[in-house]
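TA notes, week 10

Several of you asked for a full example with nothing omitted. So below is the full record: structure tokens for the whole chain, then the designed sequence directly under it. When grading your own attempts, check the secondary structure regions first.
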């Protein structure tokens, strides 16, 4: 086992590859996956991870393509090339491969519009539909050849069936014959050695003349082939031989055909396996919630919320770690079981996974480097057989690491310098770190030595980090804190567990003064860090609240601006409508005056002039009313002539809309009224009873509509500038009025705009019982800005 394999095993890359193998389609692909080795070539690593990422993209958008179970056909195809005959199983395996090639090519057609690094691989697939079809038409299963595999085989099997039927007919006669019934053990026809026979009692052997082919285990039954069917059985045996020969000919022909395409089929198989592995990597990435990081070879590592992929997703605590930017060495301290070793393994394993072309479980903007060497000393390497202590085993490993470490190496060491005298161990550990720093090696090491914490504080290019520990709960939080040295917390843990203060005080006296001061500094730093984090969290919360408040105010302001624009536009349209109506009535008045002027010579001119004067005065009053956009909506002196009843038509004064009362008036101050499609409770003072008649509508409901035969109907309704609710109310009353006026076709103007008003109008017309058909306007009618509706 090479050194690199040893280190990948320590980091448990083999377990990741085992998980990956579960997503492959066959043993051949599984073996390839289990033998994947980390690659040190940056270009190849980037290419492989990009292809995995593209497979993930295609799978998430179009579904993962299915892969069939198949065997490696290369050896069988070589046999076919030299004239060998393949078995039905081997031929069906080739058909499976060809079917897989065809299905993959068909699947990829839906992805053609997406730029993808896998495109060139898919384009290398060469389907062979003719050979695939030819194999599938020959076999019903691995053990059965189809009758229609050839015309000769069909004829042979037809003759075998005919002879078999004739033999059964002759033997049936014997079974039913009283002469033979007493001699038969059972009234059945059976087969021995491919020949039809009868089970005859041993004592009646002479009754049935023929050939004995077998006996029962007890000897009481003989299986005799009657003389009358011997010739037919012989014919069947001859035909069976011909059938076998014909099947062998068919298999040889198919094998030769496969041999002609052996190279193409082999290439197709390799391409299918290649694609299967990329999509297996994508499936593993989905399971791990992994993504593609930024990849380099400059030694820079920045893992955001990295998760160890072999720890349960429900329990793993994400860590963020940085190396190779402002410092090349990271000294991680903290209590036992606090997550130091997991941090090292996460860092090493994710690097190895990337070098294997896999995506890794990190968050956005993560950066990872590839290395020529990943050198690891994690775990107890003590060897009893070699008579090595724990310290000796670790030092043996460290020596091996130092022999290979350079600027292109990542070194991960757990408990550096442990297993010997603390003073000497700390000195050796410091020297090792200094040696690696001088070589510009990227290093992450864990330790309990305070001397290494001091070294990290005083040395450029070396950074302290610690695994956080909650003294109150005596549990680690598994958070990695960069820039802060950790404490062993032995005194706090012992105090929580009940060790007396006298012992703790005595122990404190034994600690060197400078070390005690250093621990006090660490306490101060830790306290300051916690205060900073609390204040930072509070400030972040307030910043989020202020941002949300600012966004809400912005939305309210925009909403007010939009409402203002709508009101102005509606007022503009209403003014335009008023002007148009006033112009029309003014023209009618002018026409009337012209008519009177022409009749001035008539005898009754004086009478006509008086009448016209009265009419003109009335029309002028109406013009003034029309020209005044502000109309008094209330009449404080108005009193309902009676209590309202269900079905009454009323005027809703404040919105100047007609509505239908949906319930009898009680002593309440409000009543339920429907105006168009809207139902609401309206104050009694806001309603005016109008002359109405009830009109039965198709269905179970009775609608009440105003009867005003003298009202002049309008064939056009302009809804522009209105909200959807206002427009539908207006449209509902407009359709009612059109029905009363016997108008067959109306024009509804809704404008183009966003299309929301048009959609609402079309939805209403589609559901209305009174609309026969409707369509958008054509050129000259207003096109998509209007809808033409035909009333039933």
């Amino acid at each position: 086992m090479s050194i690199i394999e040893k280190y990948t095993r320590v980091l448990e890359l083999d377990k990741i590859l085992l998980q990956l193998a579960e997503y492959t389609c066959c043993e051949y692909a599984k073996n390839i996956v289990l033998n994947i080795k980390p690659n040190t070539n940056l270009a190849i690593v980037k290419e492989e991870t990009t292809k995995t990422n593209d497979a993930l993209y295609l799978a998430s958008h179009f579904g993962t393509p299915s892969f069939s179970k198949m065997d490696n056909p290369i050896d069988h195809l070589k046999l076919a090339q030299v004239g060998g005959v393949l078995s039905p199983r081997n031929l069906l395996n080739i058909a499976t491969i060809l079917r897989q090639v065809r299905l993959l090519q068909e699947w990829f057609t839906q992805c053609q519009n997406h730029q993808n690094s896998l495109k060139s691989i898919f384009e290398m697939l060469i389907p062979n539909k003719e050979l695939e079809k030819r194999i599938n038409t020959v076999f019903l299963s691995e053990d059965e050849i189809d009758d229609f595999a050839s015309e000769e085989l069909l004829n042979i099997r037809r003759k075998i069936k005919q002879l078999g039927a004739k033999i059964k007919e002759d033997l049936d006669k014997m079974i039913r014959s009283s002469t033979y019934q007493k001699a038969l053990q059972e009234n059945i026809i059976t087969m021995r050695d491919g020949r039809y026979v009868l089970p005859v009692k041993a004592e009646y052997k002479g009754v049935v003349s023929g050939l004995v082919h077998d006996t029962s285990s007890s000897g009481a039954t003989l299986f005799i082939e009657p003389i009358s069917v011997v010739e037919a059985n012989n014919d069947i045996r001859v035909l069976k031989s011909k059938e076998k020969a014909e099947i062998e000919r068919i298999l040889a022909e198919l094998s030769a055909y496969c041999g002609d395409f052996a190279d193409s089929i082999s290439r197709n198989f390799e391409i299918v396996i290649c694609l299967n592995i990329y999509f297996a990597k994508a499936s593993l990435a989905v399971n791990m919630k992994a993504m593609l990081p930024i990849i380099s070879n400059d030694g820079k590592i920045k893992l955001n919320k990295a998760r160890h992929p072999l720890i349960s997703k429900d329990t793993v605590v994400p860590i963020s770690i940085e190396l190779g930017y402002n410092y090349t060495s990271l000294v991680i301290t903290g209590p036992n079981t606090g997550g130091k070793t997991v941090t090292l393994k996460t860092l090493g394993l994710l690097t190895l996974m990337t070098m294997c072309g896999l995506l890794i479980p990190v968050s956005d903007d993560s950066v990872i480097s590839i290395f020529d060497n990943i050198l690891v000393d994690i775990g107890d390497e003590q060897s009893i057989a070699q008579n090595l202590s724990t310290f000796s085993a670790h030092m043996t490993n460290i020596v091996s690491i130092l022999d290979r470490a350079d600027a292109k190496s990542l070194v991960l060491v757990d408990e550096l310098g442990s297993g010997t005298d603390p003073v000497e161990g700390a000195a050796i550990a410091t020297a090792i770190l200094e040696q690696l720093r001088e070589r510009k090696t990227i290093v992450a090491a864990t330790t309990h030595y305070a001397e290494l914490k001091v070294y990290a504080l005083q040395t450029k290019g070396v950074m302290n980090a610690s695994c956080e520990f909650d003294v109150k709960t005596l549990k680690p939080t598994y958070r990695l804190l960069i820039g802060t040295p950790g404490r062993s917390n032995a005194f706090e843990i012992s105090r929580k567990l009940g060790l007396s203060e006298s012992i703790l005080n005595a122990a404190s006296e034994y600690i060197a003064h400078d070390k005690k001061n250093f621990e006090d500094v660490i306490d101060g730093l830790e306290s300051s860090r916690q205060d900073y984090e609390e204040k930072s969290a509070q400030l972040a919360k307030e910043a989020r609240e202020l941002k949300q408040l600012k966004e809400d105010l912005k939305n309210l302001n925009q909403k007010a601006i939009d409402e203002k624009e709508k009101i102005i536009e509606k007022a503009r349209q209403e003014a335009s409508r008023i002007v148009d109506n006033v112009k029309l009535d003014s023209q009618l008045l002018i026409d009337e005056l012209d008519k009177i002027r022409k009749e001035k010579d008539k005898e009754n001119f004086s009478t006509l002039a008086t009448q016209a004067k009265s009419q003109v005065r009335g029309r002028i009053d109406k013009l003034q009313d029309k020209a005044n956009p502000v109309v008094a909506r209330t009449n404080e002196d108005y009193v309902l002539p009676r209590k309202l009843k269900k079905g009454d038509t009323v005027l809703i004064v404040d919105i100047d809309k007609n509505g239908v009362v949906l319930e009898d008036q009680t002593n309440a101050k409000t009543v339920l009224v429907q105006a168009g499609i809207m139902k609401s409770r309206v104050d009694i003072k806001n309603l005016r009873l109008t002359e109405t008649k009830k009109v039965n509508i198709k269905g179970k409901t009775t609608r009440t509509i105003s009867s005003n035969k003298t009202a002049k109907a309008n064939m056009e309704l302009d809804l522009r500038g209105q909200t959807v609710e206002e427009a539908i109310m207006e449209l509902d009353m407009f359709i009612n009025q059109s029905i009363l006026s016997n108008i067959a076709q109306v024009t509804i103007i809704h404008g183009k705009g966003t299309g929301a008003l048009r959609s609402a109008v079309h939805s209403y017309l589609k559901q209305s019982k009174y609309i026969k058909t409707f369509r958008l306007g054509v050129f000259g009618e207003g096109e998509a800005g209007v809808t033409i509706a035909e009333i039933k």
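Residues 345 and 399 are 20 Å apart (CA to CA). Use that as a sanity check on your answer.
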